Structure formats: C-alpha cells, structure tokens
Fold this sequence. Notes:
By secondary structure, this protein is α+β, with helices and mostly antiparallel strands. Among the domains are: about 1-60, Roll (Structural Genomics Hypothetical 15.5 Kd Protein In mrcA-pckA Intergenic Region, Chain A); about 150-255, Pseudouridine synthase (2-Layer Sandwich), CATH 3.30.2350.10. It contains 6 helices and 15 strands. It has helices at about 5-10, 15-25, 95-105, 130-145, 215-225, 275-299; strands spanning about 25-30, 30-35, 45-50, 65-70, 70-75, 115, 125-130, 150-155, 165, 170, 180, 190-200, 205-210, 250-260, 265-270. Strands 4, 5, 6, 7, 8, 9, 12, 13, 14 and 15 form a 10-stranded mixed β-sheet that branches. A 3-stranded antiparallel β-sheet has the order 2-1-3, covered by helices on one side. It has a two-stranded antiparallel ribbon with strand order 10-11. A hairpin with a 3-residue loop joins strand 12 and strand 13 (about 205-210). It is globular. The termini are far apart. Mean pLDDT is about 90; it is low at about 295-299.
Amino acid sequence: MRLDLLVSRSFGLPRRAARDAIRAGRIDAGGVPRDEPGLDVPEDTALSHHPDRPQRRRVRSRLEVLVEDPHLLIVDKPAGLLTVRTAAHEKDTLVARALSYLQHRYRRRAWIGVVHRLDKDTSGTLVFARTREALRNLQEKFRAHSIEREYLAIVERDVRAPGVFHAPLVADRGDRRRGVARSGEVGKRAVTRYRPIERFGKATLVSVRLETGRTHQIRVHFAEAGHPVLGDTVYRPRSAPPPPLEVPRQMLHAQMLGFGHPKTQERVHAASPLPADFAAVLDELRRGQKKRPEMSRGA
C-alpha cells in the first residue's frame, strides 16, 4: 500500500495533508522517518506521526506535485508554461522545474522521462517517469490508449447533448495546421467523447474524455464541429463572429489522469483543481446567465 494512503487512513488526515507530513519528515514507518509519499509499505506497518517535529527538508519550488514515488512524478502544469523547450531553448519549462525540484529534494542529480505533453496554454495533470523502465511502461500505456484522461473545456455556443467525435486527423490541413481528414485523405484515428456539464447559451462547460491522444485533438474536433474552445486563436475559424467572451487563454484544463502503476499495477489517480483564471471565466458566464432573464423582463 502507498505510504500516503496508509498515513491518511491511520491518522484521519486528508490525502494532501498526509503527503505534506511525509515530505516534511514527520512520519515514521517501522521506526524510521520516511519522506516518499508513494513508498510501497505493508498495510500492517507501524506508523507514528510527529506533527511538532521540525521540518526535515524544505524544497522551494514553483512546481505543484500531485503524486510522487520512486517511479513517477505527476504534477499540476500551469497555463502559459511549455512542457519541454523548443528550438528557442527556453530556460523555464515544466521539465526544468521538475528536474530542479527533484535535485533539491534528494540532493543528487535527477533524471525524468517525458511521457506526454500539454499545450503551452493548457493547464492540468501531467505525468513524468523517474526511471527508464517506468518511461517505457507509461509510453506503452499511452500508445495502447489505456490511460484514463478527463479534460474540462469551455467551448463556444450551446452543446445540448453528449456525443462522440470520430473524425480522423491529419498533421497538415493545407495551412501547416492540424485538421480533420477530408475525402481522399488518410488520417490518424481520433476519438473524443464529451458531455455538457453547464450550459450558458453562448458557451458550454464540457467534460471531455480521450480514447486517442492526437496532438491538438480536442481543439481540432470542437472547432470542426462549430464549437471552438473559448480562447483558441489557432483553430477558431477566422470567418466566425466575435467570441462571446474575451478570455486570457484557451479554456482547456486536464482535470484528471488515471492508470495502472508501472511497477505495481495498482491504480494511480491524480486530479488537478480548477485554475483561478478558468474559474473566473465560469463565474463571469454564470453572472451573465443570471442577468438574461432580468433583461428580458425589462424589455
């Protein structure tokens, strides 16, 4: 069993508080301080909690860690940050922050493997491998589409019912941007399932689950269907009327990630809280929704 889960159950702590206590060196397992929340321990391991013990190690980091163990690291990616550097050799990337975090935490040179990526302006859960064996295992899971992924998106116009996009995708639709395969073109299979969660008339909050993981899949599929992701300046048709709301970035958030652990095959689950900018856009849409009946009554 994961140490953080056993600590949570044993001392009635929320899972995040259990992880924080472990990382601070305030949990002894079998009489020995342990600071890896994802450490696999027997269920009958003797635990002791020392809340007043001075914090053992403090890592100053701009990285929000959701799940960590010797094999993997799941983080909460902020919008506006590249996952990996480009030809411009950016210094501040998610990979750079993850490496810095691990090096400061364990006082030794770190290694991470890039399993998948999120667009620069997409926020949410992302997993790195910490061993080459875990990297191979997780990449195979992505290729086999056995990773459970759920996104939240705010899309334009009214989405009234759940549905599935089956349109295959091509790397270049003719303008060096990705797109849906046209008649006679051979595209890669792409399947996107969605359901509306909250409707505002001019926009809809949708839950999106991917069966495949093509680059820009969600953005291309929704734009092709006439519901571009709010704030997406790449795939939104230029001929479309002005967007219903000005937003700071594309409203796409990788809310959840789930898969079998690469070593133990036990279920790993990570969820990212809604970012402040995403929540602010939802609040503005809700305020607009409340005003609409008042305006119609006064007309």
